[in-house]
Amino acid sequence: MSLSKFLMIDEMKSVYREMLNDKVSPNIFTWNTMVNAYCKIGNVVEAQLYVSKIVQAGLSPDTFTFTSLILGHCRNKDVDSAFRVFRVMPNKGCRRNEVSYTNLIHGLCEAGRIDEAIKLFERMGEDFCYPTVRTYTVIISGLCEVGRKSEGMNLFEQMLRKGCEPNAHTYTVIIDSLCKEHKVDEARKMLDGMLKKGLVPSVVTYNALIDGYCKHVLMEAALEVLDMMESNNCCPNDRTYNELIAGFCKKNVHKAMAFLDKMLELKLVPSVVTYNSLIDGQCKMGQLDSAFRLLEMMRENGLVPDQWTYSVLIDSLCKVDRVEEAHILFDSLKEKSLKANEVIYTALIDGYCKVGKVEDALSLLDRMLNEDCLPNSCTYNALIDGLCNRKNVKEALLMVKKMVGMGVKPTVHTYTILIEQMLKEGDFDQAHMTLDQLISSGCKPDVFTYTAFIHAYCGVGRLKEAEDMMIRMKEEGIFPDSLTYTLLLDAYGCLGLLCSAFDVLKRMFDVGCEPSHHTYCFLIKHLKRKQGIEDESPAMNLVSNAILFNHADVWKTMEFDTALELFEKMHQHGCVPNVNTYSKLIIGLCKVGRFGVALRLFDYMGEQGLSPGEDVYDSLLSCCCELGMYDDAMMVVDLMINSGQLPHLDSYRQLVCGLYDEGSKEKADTVFGNLLRCGYNSDEVAWKILIDGILKRGLADRCSELLSIMEKMGCQLHRNTYSLLIDGIEGT
Q1: pLDDT beyond 80 at 270
Q2: Is 516 exposed, middle or buried (CB count within 10 Å of its CB: 0-12, 13-18, 19+)?
Q3: Which of 248, 298, 452, 461 falls 20 to 30 Å from 141 in CA-CA distance?
Q4: How far apart are alpha carbons 533 and 302 in whole angstroms?
């Protein structure tokens, strides 16, 4: 029985043979054990041999035998055969029990036949059977898997009403379902309720909630669950860390890299999924060198990069106009036995279109078709956008026809690209006709479609039409975004209607739409114009004004008193300046080197009881380094670390290199030593500071000294990183 339980089939068969050799006669219990073991692995053919032995011995298969066969057929994904066994049981004098029902219900759910599973569930009473906790859990899970989550929750509540106590697995299913529905707060309450009942969550339970938080980039909450998990002696697994890494890659890639170290410490093996997340995170941060170093590390560890890996790298190269490098990487896929898919082709086609090389993009489309890789709507949209950027709407419309001819339906994005270009050319009638065509095709205009119209109307001073479009989009259940509001706000400001501009800001605050740095920059510009600081009359060509407007000019001339006036105006219009307000102003000032004003705002922010985020600290730190104010930079680093923030390694590189440049070696060594205690990934520190910073300045001796500090502090470097350092030191 124990061997069967743990599916030790060969050992079980060996013991069975020993029984026969020792002249010990098997009984129905022995044969049922054999039948059940084989059925658990879906080997019904072998199980049937032992059923035959039961019959040959003059015995009758019992409920356990038939229930095992139901399980075996279901494991084989042959639910119809399982149903036949289920139906024949009463004719053979065998009572169907709760396990018989549950096994078949599970099989039906696995096969996606959820309605049949529900009918069977409702018929259990006919055989005087009552759903067990497993029966409920199986069907709740089945409902949630096919998106019928509300029915699953209703069944969970029914389960409680009927006095059937959910187990840890039931709660895990519900928590996972709530997280997938973006109801992470409810999922957390479920976990708390589970713990109060004395149930022990598994790693799967914790992972479901961690994944939910990570997908919403609620990383502090995810880390709280990780702490709870570890304090309850539940060991995180590779999936736990993959989820955390993916989450931090959306927010702070340095912390994601630190979790790679943690994985290795726990002897967990990073997978292709792990490295793909990190490569994507580095690319999103604009750190392509680090992304390619991760690619090499991945290969060195015996992992094979997949299509997703290369699609991220090719797309990222294209986004920074390194299209030829992207094409070289694209051409190398063949020798790696990888076939470019539609995502990779589309990334490269879009890259060529963005740099104005539409002919090259069209050649790639031909190659794509010749290699039987079918373009999707994104592929055609990239080409249509490229043609529109060349002001060739006629060719763009022909491309739409070609797209339809290939069986690819135009999307809302397709129509929006065309509408934007028509509006740029001042052809409002054609744009509205295209909008009507969009709607008649079954598509629904989105925020970008409406924003294109609002932008165009604002650009020619037709604010009533712009406001009408705002009303129309809200009636359609589409919420304006920060850009939509900002365009309208700027248009009012350009017409000298400052109160109306602040009213738009109030509308943003009321609906929870976070103003961007553009929003505040335009408000400051209009405030200054009203004060007569800028000798400029209201511009009526607002589209051109918005595009050509140099934000740096605003930040360069902004004073602390201007910020106070902005805050006062905001209060007058019912908008309380918040963390986002201060952050956008401080970051804008730092970008143009206005550290003094930025620092005053930073201090004032603290006086208002507001805590700055990582982006504010990093802006102050980078600004100090750009200005050569390294003592102030060290102060900012201390403030960051004390508030639990991690400075970006680019800022650290500026600081360490700057201190060396001014001859402050001891300070540089101290900063570097403190950095190593902050929990950064050692390889990333070596890449960003030693290789990209110290060695690029030709300071081989300094690099050797810092490498020694890393070694003394127990930093473990990957062999690839170490080779890069040695080659760099020896080659300098």
Answers
A1: yes
A2: middle
A3: 248
A4: 63
Q: What percent of the chain has pLDDT over 70?
A: 96
The helix (H) or strand (E) run that includes residue 433 is: helix 428-440
pTM equals 0.87
Q: 667 pLDDT exceeds 90? A: yes
Question: Helices 307-319 and 288-300 meet at what angle, rounded to 10?
Answer: 160
Residue at 653: amino acid letter: R
Q: How many CB atoms are closer than 10 A to CB 225?
A: 25
Report in angstroms the alpha-carbon separations of 732 from 56, 293, 701, 709.
84, 20, 9, 20
Contact, 702 vs 690, CB < 8 A? no
What single-letter DSSP state applies at residue 515?
Answer: P
Q: Give dist(CA 29, CA 553) in Å, integer.
A: 87
Q: How far apart are CA 570 and CA 578, in angstroms?
A: 11
Q: Give the side-chain half-sphere CA count within 13 A for 105.
A: 27
Residues with Cβ within 8 Å of 395's Cβ and at least 6 positions away in sequence, in order, are 387
pLDDT per position as a tens digit, 308-341: 999 999 999 999 999 999 999 999 999 999 999 9
Residue 680 CA to residue 573 CA, distance in Å, equals: 44
**DSSP per residue over 639-664, as a string?**
HHHHTT----HHHHHHHHHHHHHTT-
Distance from C-alpha of 269 to C-alpha of 246, rounded to nearest angstrom: 16
Q: Pull the structure tokens for residue 132.
A: 């067990």
Q: How far apart are CA 116 and CA 398, in angstroms?
A: 49
| φ, ψ of residue 281 in degrees (nearest 5) | -65, -45
The three-state secondary structure class of 373 is coil
Question: Which is nearest to 326 in space by CA: 315, 342, 335?
Answer: 315
Tokens of 264: 């290795």
Q: Do 74 and 103 meet the contact criterion of CB atoms below 8 Å apart?
A: yes
Strand, helix or coil at 112? Answer: coil
Contact 565, 527 (CB under 8 A): yes
CA-wise closest residue to 88 among 102, 74, 75, 69: 69
Count other Cβ atoms within 10 Å, centred on residue 452. Answer: 24
173 has pLDDT over 50: yes
Any idea what DSSP says for residue 194? H
Return d(Cα 586, Cα 596) in angstroms, integer: 10
| 169 HSE (CA, 13 A, CB side) | 10
